[in-house]
Amino acid sequence: MLQQKVKELFASQLEQWPMARRNFDDLNSVQVAEVRFDACRMPVTFNAGRIRSTAAKVDKKTIAERRCFLCGENRPAEQEGIEYGRYTILINPFPIFKNHLTIPDSSHTDQMMNAERMGEMLDLAHDLSDWAIFYNGPKCGASAPDHFHFQAGDRGVMPVEEEIKKADKVLYKSDKLTVKTIDNYVRKVVILEGKERDVLTAAVEQVMKAVGEVVVREPEPMVNIITVWDENEWRVAVFPRREHRPSQFFLEDEAAKIVFSPGAVDFGGILILPRKEDFDRLQVEKETIADMFGQLSFTDEQFAELTDKIAKFSL
Ligand SMILES: [Zn+2]
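^ thats the input. predicted complex w/ zinc ion below
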């Protein structure tokens, strides 16, 4: 069984790879402070090990000049993987989760979501049901936008998993598919539920197309996606976005600056802050958290336009 093999990979990698072991050990000292909003909770975490990813330069020039860390030939000698179709399942040596995986395509090819990739994401969620599988668009937190990859983290860590389960605002419903959202959720979310792989795959493709009609962005509509297999069906959360990083990220004044560059995990409700001063500040500044998610997410008007399109689905 795949899950068992992945758990064995973890155990053997932590034994044989000192750098990874150290980084996973460091997770025990990550500080957490609970922040609550009306419709959700958003624990903020101080995780210094994530600075590399949060502050990563992902402009074309930087990406073209570096050696891709997801390509097989550039990986650390200690890193081993499990083949899964056209993917390789690896442990992520810079973790957020206690069992954090990176799942790159075995060949160097752009981070780009489509129906085929979405189908494979559903397969992964099904076969690794102890993990939530997530996708960061090329300008939505992926630190390797030139090499297709998913990530996976332990189920039950991101608050979004429980919150979307209770979502009751239905945008579309048929025999095979339910699409919902949650009001006042700090960020905007489209939740898709169903048991049929082809229907869900087509539905996510249509949601992405609609996102791209409301806010035109290259090279693809900006989204983060989280997928779980739960209670014999898939649940997919799509977070439509309009920006990559909040204005605070770019401030020169060190006291005003916030090093926050959210990807799927942050949209899933766990805010990753690699600097202590940002952690101290955000746990008491709820309005700053809401402001930053507001800058990155669809506006109310944009989201209304999107939900109008979803209401006209025929799936
Ligand atoms: Zn690569």
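The longest strand covers residues 223-230.
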